[in-house]
Design brief:
Layout (H helix, E strand, L loop, with lengths): L3 H16 L3 H21 L2 H34 L2 H35 L6 H30 L4 E6 L2 E6 L2 H5 L4 H29 L4 H36 L1 H8 L10 E7 L6 E6 L2 H7 L20 H31 L6 H9 L2 H16 L4 E3 L3 E2 L10 H32 L24
Helix pairs in contact: 1-3, 1-14, 2-3, 2-5, 2-7, 2-8, 3-4, 3-8, 3-14, 4-5, 5-7, 7-8, 7-12, 7-13, 8-9, 8-11, 9-11, 11-13
Length: 459
């Protein structure tokens, strides 16, 4: 382990993958909070109020871990990736600054009202705070995705020489923001975030129903999350198709690795499940003839570029991209089937009577987390060997004075810190879930669908 480039890549991968556990949950959970509180204002049913307060406490824990783990990433651009910052800092810094000004301040500014204002502001003002926090979380995702999408499909820039080194300068902020992949990647990422948040609610609610605790409120939260999750599942499929077609145009090497296409031509088969030979990269498994070309180009004649026509030094690592992509697709299909089963059971009246289905929802919380991580691996590994596609190679972006010993020591330090943070997070969230929504004196855990007879006690 004496390569500072590899060690820096490992460090960034660990920190970003750990961080990406939390923001998707806060984005999706923010939408659930808005729905729960809105339904409480509309129906005056205190079960919605109780559930909104409970999930707000969970939101606060997740938000705190997201902030703590996210700070590290920006510091790495100066410590480990100095040449990257010198080359594209003029562009990459702009959306990050916009994220802090327009998103983080909006989200954190109303967060105090959301967490602590239940007995201090009116119901409509508190509902407004829920909306603003959810909106701020979405704005944050927008600017982060803009920055990352520009690295995938650069636009709105020019290359200039400064002090003997090439730098990318903005020529059009509009083109930077709306580069060719921004909209597709943003909508796809947000759909994944909605699923991450809603499956958390579905998992805990299903657990309570199975254990016959807080059943009245849990059933309501379950139905709210199921509706939002169905929107997320539908959005995931639509945006995934659009995003894949965008990749086929602007990043043909990544697309070839995703689909296991080695020889250029048309029509190409779509691999559903398969095993790729590590040496020949031939795929053996279940495939649908011609479907890849049809989905990609909406015809059977347009050729798809194969990996063998990509220069050897511009090819991404094929195996991890191929398997990560198909793992993401497999999980997406499984979640779609689960959500449709839940909808069918709701309409037929047996949703909460099928224990096997509820157990599936209990473990569904893992699905979006794994799929989101796999999707990130596809996006980032598939871009290699470029850190900014077509402009700057990853090996040329590392800080020139960084040593392998320094990179290894910081990698080990972050690993230990993040392990402790993860343990703290799991302890805190498990404690909150075990405690459940606040209990009233004499209230039955299995409260039905009606209104509670006593108001909430103060936190």
């Amino acid at each position: 382990m004496d390569d500072p480039v590899l060690l820096s890549r490992l460090q960034f991968a660990i920190t970003i993958m750990f961080h990406y556990i939390f923001p998707p949950m806060t984005i999706g959970l923010g939408v659930v909070l808005v729905a729960l509180e809105g339904l409480w204002l509309k129906t005056k049913n205190d079960l919605y109020h109780k559930q909104a307060k409970f999930w707000t406490r969970i939101f606060g824990i997740i938000f705190a871990l997201g902030v703590a783990s996210g700070i590290v990433m920006e510091f790495q651009f100066g410590t480990n990736w100095a040449d990257y910052s010198r080359c594209v800092g003029d562009i990459f810094g702009s959306p990050l600054a916009a994220e802090g000004i327009f998103a983080f301040f909006l989200e954190s500014g109303f967060l105090a009202i959301l967490l602590f204002g239940w007995d201090k502001v009116g119901p409509k003002m508190h509902f407004l705070s829920s909306c603003m926090v959810a909106l701020g979380a979405h704005f944050s995702a927008i600017w982060i995705i803009v920055a990352n999408s520009w690295m995938q499909t650069p636009a709105g820039y020019k290359l200039v020489e400064v002090n003997g080194k090439i730098q990318a300068h903005i020529t059009s902020f509009y083109d930077v923001v709306f580069n060719p992949s921004t909209v597709d990647r943003l909508t796809h990422a947000l759909a994944g975030c909605w699923l991450a948040g809603t499956t958390l609610v579905l998992s805990v609610s299903a657990w309570y129903i199975l254990k016959k605790r807080f059943t009245g409120g849990s059933e309501k939260s379950f139905k709210v999350a199921l509706v939002i999750g169905l929107i997320g599942v539908a959005g995931m499929g639509i945006t995934g198709d659009s995003s894949a077609r965008e990749v086929s145009v602007h990043q043909p090497a990544k697309f070839a690795a995703m689909e296991g296409v080695m020889e250029s031509g048309a029509p190409q088969d779509l691999h559903l499940i398969g095993w790729m030979n590590p040496s020949t990269h031939e795929v053996t498994g279940i495939s649908i003839p011609y479907l890849l070309t049809l989905l990609t180009h909406h015809d059977l004649d347009t050729s798809i570029t194969g990996m063998n026509d990509i220069p050897q030094d511009e090819r991404p690592p094929i195996l991890p991209v191929f398997y990560s992509f198909h793992l993401m697709i497999l999980i997406g299909c499984a979640l779609a089937a689960l959500f449709l089963a839940g909808l069918w059971g709701w309409k037929r009246g047996w949703l909460f009577q099928k224990r096997w289905l509820l157990w599936c929802f209990v473990f569904s919380v893992l699905g979006p987390q794994i799929a989101n991580q796999a999707g990130w691996a596809v996006a980032e590994l598939g871009r290699q060997p470029w850190i900014v596609y077509g402009i700057l190679r990853t090996e040329h972006a590392v800080s020139p004075t960084l040593t392998a010993a320094e990179a290894l020591s910081s990698l080990g330090m972050f690993f230990v810190i993040y392990a402790l943070l993860l343990a703290l997070f799991l302890y805190q969230i498990t404690h909150k879930i075990h405690k459940g929504p606040d209990q009233e004196a004499g209230e039955d855990d299995g409260a039905g669908e009606g209104k509670l007879q006593v108001p909430f006690v103060k936190d």
